[in-house]
Amino acid sequence: MKENFEAELDAALRRTLDVHAPRNFRQRLMTRLPEMPAEERPRQWRLPALAALVAVLPGALAVVALRFDLAAWLAQPSILLAVLVLESAIALVWLWRTVFSR
Amino acid sequence: MYDFDQLVESHQDMVFRTIARLTGDRLGLEDMAQEVFLRLFRALPHFRGDAQLSTFLYRIVVNVVNDEFRDRKKARLTSPIEDEQARGLAHSSASPAVLAERAQMQQAVEAGLRQLTPQDRTILTLHYQEGRSYEEIAAVLDLPMGTVKTHLYRARERLKLMMKEWAR
Question: Interface pTM (ipTM) of the complex?
């Protein structure tokens, strides 16, 4: 067995193949690229707007509910059932879109 | 934000030589390289930089080569393993010893590599040709580091066995 076989094997494995990209490969590739994705603008107004909405909306809803006696209206079994069905449907759609359809 | 043009410029040779060694031939080399960069281009906006870009790119290369093998198998094309050099390695009429007599150790190694499993070939290529660490190879192939070390050792031993005639 050749003494330097191990070293020669390692050298052969380490030797880089003499393969290079063709000179105009980059240009050809660039013509195949889909449109550059537009850089997403940071939407800095979103978070404060959402926070304001969250702060104001429950109060507004409470005022409306008190004025129109919404509690009594909601307490009717048919209305309660309809609201529950609607909420369940919305929850299911949301679940489907965010979890299962990925 | 990455400059894609610059990325292609700096990585294109690496992509070409890695694909060449992993497939063992030059068939469709440019098409595969283009596919690698197209996938990189599409994935780049989602790349969060929690891995090195080179690791990410090697992973794409490995996936593209695996897809190519799958397509070739589907199309019942002859595998590169069955080409002349590899056949030569398997038969006494053109054994590694003959290749050695022709001073073609390199050719024999390339032919031997083609007889290994794609995963072993990938590990040897990334370790020896590309000089990647065990850790990076593990990340590219999504394997534990211990598995990478074991595969590397076994693949090299298998290659050695194939070439024992040459070593006499």
Answer: 0.72
